[in-house]
């Protein structure tokens, strides 16, 4: 279950916002390596799988705020116990920018898979980070439960930064001749250098059918809290969610679509994205 984090960074004003706006919860975010209950709404296979994922989406914002377009991709390539990973995304919103990250993972006997990534972006004030450092660990508590704690540091060109600890849990159950279910829970904090703290909590349930069809529903809530570029404090609860549907072909290719509506006290964001994933 990789995530680029669940959300490309959303601002709470028509001007570019600070890093904590990264988690108002409406769309995929660049977090150097994890699709939380957001970008990859379909659960992973319960083993490392070399694959490439491409995606694109559009979200409209209400109340005069800027719409968001994004497109990007992931690469996960495994060579025995070692993995090579890449994450790229282009964002068109209050500012236009591109982001890229590279990383390695290693399976450690008795511990799990350790993953390290580092990324940067093209010139922008606060939409995507100037520097992103990510460390995560994948633990198989049982043959049916996977836990992924992680921490990400992001620094932006407007001198704002934050540290984001997160944990993701996936539990596989109900396996039979027709398929199985995956329940997912994601929780995280955003600790900024301006002493503001945001948080998010999400969950979802997906039915993975033997015929290749995947049907799911996810939701989330949280608090976005940060200082805007204009010097005012932004503090708002957000909540949202939506359905997702996908289909995995016998050759390992997969297509998926996710719709989403997210609301905070400043605006509502409505949209969808489509993705294509293929095994290597």
The CATH architecture assignment turns out to be: Beta Barrel
Name the CATH superfamily classification: monomeric porin ompg
Strand content: over 45%
Computed structural class: mainly beta
The 3D shape can be described as globular
The poorly predicted ranges are 1-46
Name the strands of the widest sheet in spatial order. 1-2-3-4-5-6-7-8-9-10-11-12-13-14
Helix share bin: under 10%
Distance between the termini: 17 Å
What does this structure look like?
With 280 residues, this protein is mostly beta strands. The protein has a single domain (19-279), classed as monomeric porin ompg (Porin, Beta Barrel). It contains no helices and 14 strands. Strands 1-2-3-4-5-6-7-8-9-10-11-12-13-14 form a 14-stranded antiparallel β-barrel. The chain is globular and about 50 Å long.
Q: SSE layout and pairings?
A:
Layout: E1 51-61, E2 68-79, E3 82-92, E4 96-108, E5 112-121, E6 131-142, E7 145-155, E8 161-176, E9 179-192, E10 197-209, E11 213-227, E12 233-248, E13 254-264, E14 268-279
What are the defining features of this structure?
14-stranded antiparallel β-barrel, 14 strands, 63% strand, disordered N terminus, mainly beta, 280 residues, Porin, single chain
């Amino acid at each position: 279950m990789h995530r680029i984090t669940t959300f490309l960074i959303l601002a709470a004003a028509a001007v570019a916002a600070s890093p904590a706006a990264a988690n108002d919860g409406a769309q995929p975010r660049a977090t150097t390596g994890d699709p939380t209950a957001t970008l990859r709404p379909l659960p992973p296979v319960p083993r490392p799988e070399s694959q490439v994922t491409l995606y694109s989406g559009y979200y409209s914002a209400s109340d005069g705020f800027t719409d968001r377009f994004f497109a990007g991709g992931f690469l996960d390539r495994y060579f025995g116990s070692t993995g090579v990973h890449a994450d790229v995304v282009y964002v068109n919103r209050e500012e236009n920018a591109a982001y890229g990250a590279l990383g390695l993972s290693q399976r450690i006997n008795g511990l799990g898979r350790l993953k390290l990534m580092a990324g940067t972006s093209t010139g922008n004030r606060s939409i995507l980070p100037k520097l992103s450092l990510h460390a995560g660990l994948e633990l198989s508590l049982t043959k049916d439960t996977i836990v992924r704690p992680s921490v990400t540091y992001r620094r932006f060109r407007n001198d704002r930064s934050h540290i984001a600890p997160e944990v993701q849990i996936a539990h596989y159950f109900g396996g039979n001749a027709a398929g199985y279910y995956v329940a997912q829970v994601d929780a995280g904090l955003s600790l900024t250098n301006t002493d503001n703290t945001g948080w998010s909590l999400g969950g979802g349930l997906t039915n993975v059918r033997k015929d290749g069809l995947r049907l799911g529903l996810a939701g989330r809530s949280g608090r976005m809290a940060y200082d805007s570029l204009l010097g005012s404090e932004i503090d708002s609860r957000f909540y949202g969610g939506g359905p997702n549907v996908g289909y995995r072909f016998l050759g390992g290719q997969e297509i998926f679509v996710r719709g989403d509506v997210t609301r905070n006290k400043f605006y509502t964001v409505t949209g969808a994205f489509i993705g294509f994933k293929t095994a290597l």
